[in-house]
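PT: before anyone asks, these are the final sequences, not the draft ones from last week. 744 residues across everything. Please model them as a single complex and drop the result in this thread when it's through.
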Amino acid sequence: MVAEVVAAVITDVELMKASQIGMKAIGAGLAVGITGIASGLAEMAIGSAAVGATAENKDVFGLVLLLTVIPETIVIFGLVVALLLIF
Amino acid sequence: MLKPEQMSKLLIVASKDQMAPVVTELYRHNLFHIEDYVEAGAEGYDGFKIGTPLLGATEASGDLVKIRAIQNAFSIRSEDFEVKQRHKQSGLQVLIERELPAIEQEVEGLTVKRSKLETKEKEHEQKIAELTPFIGIPVDLDLYRGYLRFVVFAGYVAHEVSITVPNEMFFTKGKAGNFIIVIAPVEHRNEVERVLQEAAYQAVTIPDESGVPQERVSYYSSQITLIKKEIEDINQKLDAIKEKHASFLVACEEILKVQVEQTEAPLRFATTNETFVAEGWVPSASVETLSQALVKSTRGKIFVTVLPTDSEHDIVPVEYNNPSFAKPTQMLMDVYSRPKYSELDPTLMLSIVFPLFFGLILGDVGYGLILLAMCLGLRKFLKGEEGTQLLTVLRNASFSSIIFGLLYSEFLGFELPWSPIMFSRHLKIGSGEAGGHGPQIPELMILAIWIGLLHITLGRVLGMINHARQDHGDHRIKAVMANFGWICVMWGILMVIWSIVKMPYMPDFTTLPSIVSGVNIAAVVGAVMLIAGVVFIARDSGLELVELPTIISHVLSYARIVAVGLSSVAIAMVVNFIAIGMLISPQLENLTLVGVIFIIMGVAVFLIGHALNTALGILGGGLHSIRLHYVEFFTKFYKGGGKKYSPFGLNRRFTED
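LR: through. Structure below.
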């Protein structure tokens, strides 16, 4: 009887652990995914403006390439959070 | 080092008859950065006028325009042109007069003929486009016009129509839409028009041709083929001329450019009736050489002196002064902005720290070697100065990448035979079993944060130096103290954090005895630093306080060194797992015909995956390292906006005296 209860508790605990790991993974996925979309949205406008600027003056290519990657910070923070969640 | 080349302001005065030798001498030395004389309101220049070009300026410019037109037609760019032999200037001069007109005429004749043929080709294509709808109608083209009592409609409609009045109608369905021809008596014109309008009728011009449409189309097609052949012939002829004369043309362009620049130099000088005055900048080290050369070339009939530099009003041109290994990095500085004359030149720091960041991000022996091979290989194709500089910067970065790869023990995502000497970045992808060392993410993060803290502190210290140098009076102290305040706030926050949380590889102040209500000495010191810092910043500019949160975001931004690096490790390991773990190695155990296909697929995945990851890694590693400099580091101290030192002269490549 006692043994059964203990076994049940242990399986419960294991299940909870497993679900916690799963939740962490989902959280990490959301962190990267949503911030990725946000970076994409931000880069969209900059990128199109950058292409226009480069078409007018090729010299600004280096600069606008740089401006385009500035919103990438958002997804990098997402990635950092995800990594910290998982490890 | 850390300072641009020191410049002196040189004043040259001589009589006008010495203008030509002086200009030639200045040009030859390629040292004198001319300050263009502007007539309006220059102090001490009352009564001076802008000079007039020397003899031969018009002819030289005329010839230069011709040569550039020819070069354009041939799309020869002298920057990309390889120097095979150097032409003698005197010989070339004769050739320009004798051969240039002939070449010009020939090229112009051919290009005009070519553009005529191209126009004709377009016309024929247009005709074919007009004729195409009529191909499906079995009627001669003559039959569409010339009627007095009939009216002809031709065009596209949305659907088939039925017309009640007497008419003759052809209807075909095609790719472009439903094509319809209606011939009706003139008196029923309105009725037909109405019906057609209801079917969204779009009229088409009836081609002014005779005969069967199909035959006409094939006639024009054959004409186009002929024209294309003729254009091809002309292109071949032009190629032959290009082959023959290209080296002559670039040499001519260079010589004429030299002539034009020299003869037009007086337009940048101030002159009176008998004399001229030139002002400009010369690197201080070369003042003596240049002055002596000028005196010698004019046999002493010249006055050369160094004027005092007025740091408030003079805009001194800036020439980098860096050790040779740091020179290529100047390109990355120019992308941002050239330093001002009075400013610290951070090129040297950039040239050391950029490769370090790059290596920390893309620390992989395999990718490092690929990048190194690419840099060495591309050297043949990228000819311009900037291209070569970029390749050298990337080459240095690839060395750093290889070294960090050895430390991280990584080769295309595989582990090298030793354990990572630095922190491990090996993710557990595909391995499944427990044990072994996983990635040391928290340690790596702390490392990145430390780099950020030190880098930003360095930036602020440089900011203090810059303000101490550039500013004057009351503002100077305030600006220096404000930069110090930023350092105080940053380290103050850190002290408070350290007194609360224990972190690996960071000082631990949590165990210090508490003073007041559980707050320990470190926290108190931190709080004092924070408040003092805020006060210092506010004294310089209250508005700056809005920027306080950037302290945290900028430091955290350095986490990208780890994050971007780990993402490239992850991609590499996933590629390896899919290619080898999932596709290749299960098949190798028991080889079948299908297995061979799987293995080929595995190899393809491996190659494509790593090619993609190399591109991403170089782009990510390079852009994020440079961004950390531009956004996080430079904003702390660097303004830029210096004027480029462009001396009067030219490094000749194709010609010699």
